[in-house]
Amino acid sequence: MKKFLFIAAIAGFAIACNNESKPAATDSTAAATKDSTAAAAPALKDGLMTMKDGKMMIVKAGAWSAMDSTVTCTNGRKVAADGTVSKGDKNRKMEEGMMIDKDGQLMDKNGKPMDTSGWD
Known about the structure:
Elements: H1 2-17, H2 27-40, E1 49-52, E2 55-60, E3 63-66, E4 71-72, E5 78-79, E6 84-87, E7 90-93, E8 99-100, E9 106-107
Antiparallel strand pairs: 1-2, 1-8, 2-3, 4-5, 5-6, 6-7, 8-9
C-alpha cells in the first residue's frame, strides 16, 4: 500500500511539473489590444479649454485650436484668450495644464475638479 501511495504522489508531482503555460501574446494580439483600448478612449468634448505652452486652447469639433476670443461659460465665468478667468470682480490666471470646461468647472492638470467655492 505504501508503494502505491508513493507511486501516486510521484505521478501527481510529474503531472503538475509538466503543466504547460500559455504561450506569450503575439505582436498582432498586442496590437489589437492597443487599438481597441485607443478606440475606447473618450472623445474630447467641445468647449473644453486648457492652458498649453502659455496659450489658451479650446476643443472645437473634437480637435484643439487656439482661442482667439473670450468665452463665457454657462455659470457666468469668462475665459479670456490670455488665460484670465473672471466672474464678477474675482480674477484668476490659468496655470500651465489647468483646464476649464464649458460649464465653468476648473480642473487641475490631472483633471481633478478644483475648489471654486469663493467664486459663487
